[in-house]
Fold this sequence. Notes:
Elements: H1 2-17, H2 19-25, H3 29-38, H4 45-52, H5 57-75, E1 78-82, E2 84-88, H6 116-128, E3 133-137, H7 146-159, E4 164-167, H8 170-180, H9 184-193, H10 209-215, H11 222-234, E5 239-245, H12 251-268, E6 271-278, H13 285-288, H14 300-313, H15 325-328, H16 330-336, E7 343-346, H17 353-356, H18 367-376, E8 380-384, E9 390-393
Parallel strand pairs: 1-7, 1-8, 2-3, 3-4, 5-6
Antiparallel strand pairs: 8-9
Iron/sulfur cluster (SF4) binds at residues 93, 95-97, 100, 102-103, 139-140.
Amino acid sequence: MEQINDAIKRIEESKNQGLDALLSRVIGRTARIIDKAFMGEEVSVDEGEHLFGIQDMDELSALSIAADEIRREDVGDLVTYVINRNINFTNICNVYCGFCNFMAPEGDDRAYFLTMEEIAEKTVEARENGATEVCMQGGMHPDIDGNFYVEIIKTVKKAVPDMHTHAFSPFEIYYGAKTLNISEEDFIGRLKDVGHNTFPGTAAEVLDEEVRTIIAPRKIPTQTWIDVVKKAHKAGMRTTSTIMYGHMDKPYHWARHLGILRDIQKETGGFTEFVPLRFIPWNTRLFQHSKGKVNPGPTDLDQLKMYAVSRLMLRGWINNIQVSWVKQGPEFAQFSLTAGANDFGGTLMEEHISRSAGANHGQYFPPDEFRRLTREIGRIPAQRNTTYGILKVFDEDKEQ
Ligand code: SF4
């Protein structure tokens, strides 16, 4: 905590001195990479790894302030949020990812499986609370197949026809197709035919087999994740992109992960945003059984670097970078918005996955709180839809 408080103080002080003064104190490779990013030149994976390794506080301040400036140049001062609701339709799953405490085996006391009526009710309730999106993901229930996913979309669209469905990770797309014995392209087509809108780019964790085979050995491998995402994009469906970091992974994995996302984006243009998700360790088997070999999530400084480095590496390709109030807490999420990020995420209404893993935050974050925290850092709050269309800009202090 002392280290992050010191870093925050240094960053605040450095802002008062101005970027030029700060950059003049930073020399060598870090300064050259920051310079490249300012010029619009691509920051390589190797250079990204160097930035993740920064320990010097002046260099960290320079990186953070440069990322904030590039954010301002590329997407302006709006901090966006979406009014949405999570519907985690079942926690029954037999994949047993070590970092997940959301899942429950069939018959477990915690196991649940929502009916279609309950999904419809939650959708109507979401709209009554102003939601434009329902975000739906669940466990890999052994008895469901791709038709179940199609049915969910039909149910939501029947309940509230213009509700945006943001649902099913690349793993769920793969699972749905496999259970119906059809190609992923055909399965995506079936979802599209019933009006499905976008896919979350979750289940990415860290896109590197060195890490995946340890933390999620039964999930789809890196190459399959990449292939499924490209198929979705090529079918005209947008997805988000994510990383779940701070466990067995190292900075070079993070830089390579960003490089993979950037390469996909160059080919398809289908990502709407990048969402870093910190590992929440407390109730997970991965952490509890690790005998000290698994990190308890990224440090606060690593989180700031993740926002700043992703802003630099993804520049011109993925321009929306989201903080996570659920996983970071509202105050630290607010501070992370000054290190390169521009989106506050969603109100959620209910959230089970991070809370199961031990996060203290979750459930619901009211829009007026997003707006208050945004104004506190001198930025302008704006409500968006899932694909970053601006619905309303709250540019007057008196406007609530
Ligand atoms: S992360 Fe998803 S697939 Fe893995 S155990 Fe949890 S619910 Fe199952």
